[in-house]
Design brief:
The complex is a heterodimer of chains A (385) and B (221). With 385 residues, chain A is α+β, with helices and mostly antiparallel strands. Helices cover 23% and strands 31% of the residues of chain A. Chain A folds into 2 domains: 246 residues, P-loop containing nucleotide triphosphate hydrolases (Rossmann fold, 3-Layer(aba) Sandwich), CATH 3.40.50; 115 residues, RNA polymerase II/Efflux pump adaptor protein, barrel-sandwich hybrid domain (OB fold (Dihydrolipoamide Acetyltransferase, E2P), Beta Barrel). Chain A is built from 10 helices and 22 strands. In chain A, the strands form 4 sheets. Chain A has a 7-stranded mixed sheet with strand order 1-12-11-4-10-9-8, sandwiched between helices. In chain A, a hairpin with a 2-residue loop joins strand 11 and strand 12. Chain B has one domain: MetI-like fold. The N and C termini of chain B lie far apart (44 Å). The chains are: A alpha+beta (385), B mainly alpha (221). The interface between A and B is medium-sized, with 24 and 19 residues.
Chain lengths: 385, 221
């Protein structure tokens, strides 16, 4: 796993060791029945998104952290405490781990009111105190007045909030969220996501969110960890992952389209990236390769600049390429354009506003010129086609 | 009216329910979560349902005899015989009613999603607390129908009880057997009264079950 920079979040100053001691660190490996090769960490107050297609082992990892699934080898540490250590044959019970788990279907107790669902997870103290604590949690998720309701008398969004309140009422050392927004409609999902984003600001424990929704993950998580077949492939901020995926596979898993094959060449006394007839300038990284080496490269769609017809500008001298519009998909205010090139079957995708597409009189079959911004070209060595 | 027969019947029904309740809860819960050998155990539990009562009674009679496996053990333990005794018909009644006690409870446990138990553990509840506070309230209607079925079925059981217990007054003659005896003795009026009583009890049982499950239904949705 490659750890990318982790910027702009409360734990920024913590080194890996501190993160290890205070936060959650997980290393789980097994050959079967569900193959796992997962290593990741999550700092206090950090929200880590585990993303990957269904069957990639996301939920298994979450269940292993909770102690609901036993894994053959590895360790789980949280808050400076060892929860699981296969080498020493040590494994804390689910109850001893202090986890807050929000299940995909919420798993509310159907015979208990919202208050009693939360109350069950509140520990110690007197009955009156526990009751007050439970009600405080319910009001924190904005469910005042609904304490007496049974789960079936609540809407999907309200149920999810009860589940979150119950998970947090345990004063957990880690919050685990398993697809917490998948069971509600789009409008409710947006609202709940916003509420989680606000709520998490107040939490100082590691939080792990499992989701197959990339948009959701990148909106909510500080860092993402990409999983495939139980293996953690890369982790980093959403920005890092989306701009510099390590391999074409990761780009594909993250639904990034613009992956191409190229070759390093020497031209004009410097290294260039040969792609078809083009000799592309690359912002950085090319010096590490020797001419003749073939590699894959990636360009974020945001770094493709469409040339305006008949109005050349400065930016157009940067890696200009010419392609034919193969596909135009207008989705709301944005139009996604797919370009095909004469020199191969690889296609380039980018987005422009729909009115810009109209103003430029773009249409299928038209030939257009675009610039590929050199600084954004990301080389993926060791993954030659 | 054969009051001693009624008393034997009620004692048998309550005794059977009392003993089969924990057995049904344990076995039903185990079966609901069992992976391997489940079909085998289920078939064994269901066997009394499909066996002719006289056949089952015959085998139980053999087993309960002084030289039989169960009867011999019982005799060495207590010095008394199982056949033609209340204990004997109680044991037989337990075997006969096993499916009625286990199956509804098993279905109820199967309807409790595994994630609820996991959510309870994650909330800090021990396995025992999870059983009492989450699982048991959720299988309540299953338990009530198991008890009702067992109770009503014990009152009506005829063949097996007759084979194992005969019809000893105050010991093994149940109401159902007493009715048969009355008819054999051409006492239709006596048989009619007792039949009406059994009918009444059965109706009451079903009423109580429906009442309880309705209440449960309103609470749980």
């Amino acid at each position: 796993m490659v750890e990318h920079g982790h910027v702009g979040f409360p734990d920024q100053g913590l080194d890996a060791q501190a993160r290890d001691a205070e936060g959650l660190s997980v290393s789980l490996h097994q050959a079967g029945p569900i193959p796992l090769a997962a290593d990741f960490a999550c700092a206090p107050g950090e929200l880590l998104g585990l993303v990957g297609p269904s069957g990639s082992g996301k939920t298994t990892l979450l269940r292993a952290i909770a102690g609901l699934t036993r894994v053959a080898s590895g360790y789980i540490r949280c808050g400076g405490q060892s929860w699981f250590d296969a080498a020493r044959g040590h494994s804390l019970s689910v109850q001893a781990r202090r986890i807050g788990f929000v299940f995909q279907d919420y798993a509310l107790f159907p015979h208990l009111s919202a208050r009693d669902n939360v109350l069950l997870a509140v520990e110690g103290e007197s009955g009156e105190e526990r009751r007050t604590t439970a009600e405080a949690w319910l009001s924190r998720v904005r469910l005042e007045g609904l304490e007496e309701r049974l789960p079936h008398q609540l809407s999907g969004g309200q149920r999810q909030r009860v589940a979150v309140a119950r998970a947090l009422a345990r004063k957990p050392q880690v919050l685990l969220l398993d697809e917490p927004f998948s069971a509600v409609d789009q409008v409710t999902r947006r609202r709940l996501q916003r509420e989680l984003a606000l709520l998490r600001e107040t939490l100082t424990i590691p939080m792990v969110l499992v989701t197959h929704d990339l948009e959701e993950a990148s909106a909510l998580a500080d860092r993402l960890c990409v999983l495939h077949g139980g293996k953690t492939l890369q982790s980093g901020t959403p920005e890092t992952l989306f701009r510099t995926p390590d391999t074409p596979q990761i780009a594909r898993l993250l639904d990034r389209h613009n992956v191409f094959s190229g070759e390093v060449v020497a031209a004009h006394g410097e290294r260039r990236l040969a792609w078809g007839p083009y000799r592309l300038e690359v912002g950085q990284g090319l010096a590490a390769f020797s001419p003749g080496q073939s590699l894959r490269w990636y360009l974020p769609p945001s770094d493709v600049v469409l040339h305006r017809r008949g109005r050349p500008s400065n930016g157009e001298r940067e890696n200009p390429v010419e392609g034919r519009v193969r596909e135009m998909v207008a989705m709301g205010g944005v139009t996604q354009i797919t370009l095909a090139f004469d020199h191969g079957t690889e296609t380039l995708r980018f987005e422009i506003t729909t009115h810009a597409a109209r103003r430029n009189a773009l249409a299928r079959g038209e030939v257009v010129q675009v610039s590929l911004l050199a600084d954004a070209i990301h080389l993926m060595p060791g993954a030659s086609s | 009216m054969d009051w001693s027969a009624l008393f034997v019947s009620l004692r048998l029904a309550f005794g059977t329910c009392l003993i089969l309740l924990p057995v049904g809860l344990w076995l039903g819960r185990r079966l609901a979560r069992m992976q391997r050998r489940r079909v085998l155990v289920e078939a064994l539990v269901a066997l009394p349902l499909v066996m002719p009562p006289t056949v089952l009674g015959f085998y139980l009679m053999l087993a309960f005899a002084g030289d039989g496996p169960v009867g011999g053990f019982w005799a060495s333990l207590t010095g008394t015989s199982l056949n033609f005794s209340f204990t004997g018909i109680l044991l037989a009644s337990l075997v006969v009613n096993l499916p009625f006690a286990v199956q509804p409870i098993q279905r109820a446990f199967e309807a409790v999603p595994e994630t609820l138990r996991e959510a309870a553990w994650c909330s800090g509840l021990s396995t025992r607390q999870t059983f009492w506070r989450i699982e048991l309230p959720l299988v309540r209607s299953g338990v009530v129908s198991a008890l009702a079925l067992t109770f009503a079925h014990t009152l009506g059981e005829f063949g097996v009880i007759l084979m194992v217990g005969g019809a000893i007054d105050g010991e093994t003659r149940t109401l159902a057997i007493a009715i048969y005896d009355r008819v054999q003795a051409f006492d239709e009026a006596g048989a009619g009264r007792m039949s009406a009583l059994l009918l009444g009890i059965s109706f009451l049982t079903i009423g109580v079950v429906y009442g309880l499950s309705r209440r449960g239904g309103r609470r749980h949705g």
